[in-house]
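Field log, afternoon session.

UNIT: design team B
ACTIVITY: writing a sequence onto a fixed backbone
BACKBONE:
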C-alpha cells in the first residue's frame, strides 16, 4: 500500500450547515459534489462532507449518535507563521466555529490552538518551525 491519504470524509449531521460553514471559511467547493456530498480540495488531499447516517451505512458500520465527546482524532491546518495561526482561528470563529483552545506556545516548540466545526470535529491550527510548508501548502517532514 502506498503511504498516502487521498480523502478525509466527515460524517456530518446537517450537510447544508456544514457545507455553509466551510464556505464561510473561504473554502472553494469542487463541482464534483452534489446535493448528497460536498468536496473541497485541501492541498494534496480532499475533504468530503457526507451525511453521517449515509456514511455509516456505506461503511456497514454501527452509527452511534454524535455527542460533545472527543472523536479521537484531529484535522490539522499547519500555518507558515504564528500570526497566521491567530488569523485562521479568528476566521474560524467568524465562520461560526467554537474555539476549543486559544493559540499558545506549545511544549514541542511551536504555536497552536484548536477550533471545532458544526459537528464538533476538532481542528488544530499550528505553526511548527520544524515542518516547512511549500507554496502549494504541502508539509515537508524531515527524512
Amino acid at each position: 500500500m502506498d503511504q498516502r491519504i487521498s480523502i478525509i470524509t466527515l460524517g456530518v449531521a446537517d450537510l447544508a450547515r456544514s457545507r455553509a460553514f466551510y464556505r464561510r471559511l473561504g473554502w472553494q467547493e469542487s463541482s464534483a459534489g452534489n446535493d448528497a456530498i460536498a468536496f473541497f480540495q485541501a492541498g494534496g488531499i480532499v475533504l468530503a462532507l457526507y451525511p453521517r447516517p449515509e456514511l455509516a451505512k456505506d461503511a456497514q458500520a454501527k452509527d452511534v449518535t454524535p455527542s460533545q465527546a472527543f472523536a479521537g482524532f484531529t484535522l490539522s491546518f499547519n500555518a507558515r507563521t504564528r500570526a497566521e495561526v491567530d488569523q485562521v482561528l479568528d476566521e474560524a470563529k467568524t465562520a461560526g466555529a467554537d474555539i476549543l483552545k486559544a493559540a499558545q506556545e506549545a511544549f514541542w516548540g511551536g504555536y497552536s490552538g484548536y477550533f471545532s466545526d458544526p459537528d464538533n470535529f476538532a481542528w488544530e491550527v499550528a505553526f511548527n518551525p520544524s515542518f516547512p510548508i511549500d507554496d502549494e501548502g504541502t508539509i515537508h517532514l524531515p527524512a
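LOG NOTE: The chain has two domains: 1-52, 70-135.
NEXT ACTIVITY: expression trials, pending approval
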